[in-house]
């Protein structure tokens, strides 16, 4: 989300909201940090806190993976106003602050994985390289500056440095001609980077736990991007058509239907039920929208994957579909706060979520064994999760939410009574 072009003002307002939310947090939570502390890059996790998460003693019996989205902002200011990445179209976000929060979030991912006894892989929910993706040949070195040096660094992030990432594409990967192809090419050239094709599946068998991840290219579902000067037009012309969308849907249905894994999950960049973007509900709100979303939702409701994981909204949230769009089992996690967090994104669609972290940086940690699938939401600055969702392997049993999932909206910019206070 956050595609506003009101450059300076939006950045200023956002920065001041982040400062405000940081200050407010210190008065309410024992181990919160102010943004000032966050800028020093010193994360001191308070090990006196009892984590809700399954701990190191039981490591090995579980599989743990991180879910993080909307992350690559470390060198994005340098790429702005380069060919195919115009300041006019992409000037709305704050690259400097985003880069700092990206580094902070990476450190916290590392600390949390260390604390729980190790993680096994990472799911990236898209918007991998802001603002516009990477140039063919990655001539500006974004893979190193925004990924290798941040997450694969054996000194800064030793616990997660060797993990493989399974990614999807987001809209910000789609502006530069050749970016999609280059990100796919990284799969063969770079250990730990996986996007073998626009959409794909991955079967995991780790510690006796089997999982099938289905990684979806939902970009062409959004017809307003087809013909938008912002994005690389040829990609949408080639893919925003019934042939591609039906072909992918057949792949998704077959992948769900044939899955013999204990757990099947779906990854896509955009929320079906998010706090700002809401493609599962808003068919009429996006004129010309393709039927890709309703086909995907029908498939989810038929085959009951344990979770749909997405980014795009720059916050962490737990979506709640309306009664006539839920199968009573599948959970909708938004994890799109890998660099900048946005109060605006975290508040707009208040009816559709059980939890929102109020638009701060963070990620989700999923812990899995043969019978329990648990998602923990970690907001920057805390070593305990704010919201924990547990799903059973029995698809007739609904997930349970921890008390923290009902809290959300703890900052003064977006407190539930005046959701858009930050932008007006
Ligand atoms: C760590 O957490 C404990 C328990 O929540 C609290 O009593 C203590 O003050 C915290 N220490 C720091 C340095 O924040
Ligand atoms: C970790 O889990 C074990 C087994 O449940 C328990 O005995 C131990 O106290 C836990 N450790 C921490 C730090 O919570
Ligand atoms: C996009 O890139 C391809 C391959 O490099 C090139 O053939 C094509 O002309 C480019 N299209 C535009 C519109 O720049
Ligand atoms: C993990 O480390 C080993 C040994 O250094 C290396 O061969 C392998 O490519 C690394 N894997 C990833 C995913 O980075
Ligand atoms: C996408 O744009 C192309 C070129 O303008 C057009 O031919 C095509 O019909 C569009 N696709 C959809 C689904 O509207
Ligand atoms: C689902 O319920 C909403 C009201 O909550 C209603 O507007 C909509 O038409 C219903 N959709 C279907 C397919 O029944
Ligand atoms: C999975 O973990 C839960 C919670 O720790 C535990 O109750 C359950 O027995 C475990 N299941 C298996 C198959 O180990
Ligand atoms: C929420 O925001 C509104 C408008 O800024 C303010 O009037 C109200 O006092 C705030 N409520 C809380 C609980 O902070």
UniProtKB/TrEMBL annotation:
<dbReference type="InterPro" id="IPR051558">
    <property type="entry name" value="Metallophosphoesterase_PAP"/>
</dbReference>
<protein>
    <recommendedName>
        <fullName>Calcineurin-like phosphoesterase domain-containing protein</fullName>
    </recommendedName>
</protein>
<keyword id="KW-0732">Signal</keyword>
<feature type="signal peptide">
    <location>
        <begin position="1"/>
        <end position="24"/>
    </location>
</feature>
<keyword id="KW-0378">Hydrolase</keyword>
<feature type="domain" description="Calcineurin-like phosphoesterase">
    <location>
        <begin position="64"/>
        <end position="315"/>
    </location>
</feature>
<dbReference type="GO" id="GO:0016787">
    <property type="term" value="F:hydrolase activity"/>
</dbReference>
<dbReference type="InterPro" id="IPR029052">
    <property type="entry name" value="Metallo-depent_PP-like"/>
</dbReference>
<dbReference type="InterPro" id="IPR004843">
    <property type="entry name" value="Calcineurin-like_PHP"/>
</dbReference>
<dbReference type="Pfam" id="PF00149">
    <property type="entry name" value="Metallophos"/>
</dbReference>
């Amino acid at each position: 989300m956050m595609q506003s072009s009101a450059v300076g003002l939006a950045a200023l307002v956002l920065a001041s909201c982040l400062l405000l939310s940081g200050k407010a947090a210190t008065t309410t939570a024992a181990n919160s940090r102010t943004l000032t502390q966050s800028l020093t890059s010193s994360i001191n996790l308070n090990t006196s806190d009892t984590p809700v998460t399954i701990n190191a003693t039981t490591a090995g019996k579980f599989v743990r993976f991180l879910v993080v989205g909307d992350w690559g902002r470390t060198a994005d200011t340098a790429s702005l106003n380069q060919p195919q990445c115009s300041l006019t179209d992409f000037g709305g976000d704050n690259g400097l602050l985003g880069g700092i929060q990206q580094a902070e979030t990476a450190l916290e991912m590392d600390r949390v994985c260390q604390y729980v006894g190790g993680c096994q892989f990472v799911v990236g929910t898209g918007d991998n390289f802001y603002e516009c993706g990477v140039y063919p040949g990655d001539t500006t070195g974004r893979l190193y500056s925004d990924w290798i040096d941040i997450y694969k660094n054996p000194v800064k992030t030793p616990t997660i440095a060797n993990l493989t990432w399974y990614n999807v594409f987001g809209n910000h990967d789609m502006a530069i001609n050749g970016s999609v192809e280059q990100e796919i090419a990284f799969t063969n050239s770079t250990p730990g980077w996986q996007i073998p094709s626009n959409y794909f599946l991955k079967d995991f068998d780790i510690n006796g736990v089997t999982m099938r991840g289905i990684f979806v290219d939902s970009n062409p579902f959004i017809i307003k991007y087809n013909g938008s000067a912002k994005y690389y037009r040829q990609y949408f012309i080639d893919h925003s058509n019934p042939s591609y969308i039906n072909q992918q849907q057949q792949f998704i249905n077959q992948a769900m239907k044939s899955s013999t894994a204990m757990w099947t999950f779906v990854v896509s960049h955009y929320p079906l039920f998010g706090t700002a973007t809401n493609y599962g509900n808003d068919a009429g709100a996006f004129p010309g929208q393709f039927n890709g979303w309703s086909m995907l939702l029908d498939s989810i409701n038929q085959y009951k994957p344990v979770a749909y994981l997405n980014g795009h909204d720059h916050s962490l949230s737990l979506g709640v579909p309306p009664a006539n769009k839920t199968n009573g089992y599948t959970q909708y996690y938004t994890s799109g706060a890998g660099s900048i967090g946005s109060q605006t994104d975290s508040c707009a669609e208040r009816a559709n979520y059980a939890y929102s972290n109020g638009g701060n940086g963070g990620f989700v940690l999923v812990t899995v064994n043969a019978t329990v699938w648990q998602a923990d939401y970690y907001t920057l600055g805390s070593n305990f999760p704010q919201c924990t969702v547990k799903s059973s392997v029995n698809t007739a049993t609904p997930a349970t939410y921890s008390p923290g999932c009902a809290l959300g909206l703890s900052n003064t910019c977006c407190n539930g009574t005046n959701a858009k206070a930050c932008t007006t």
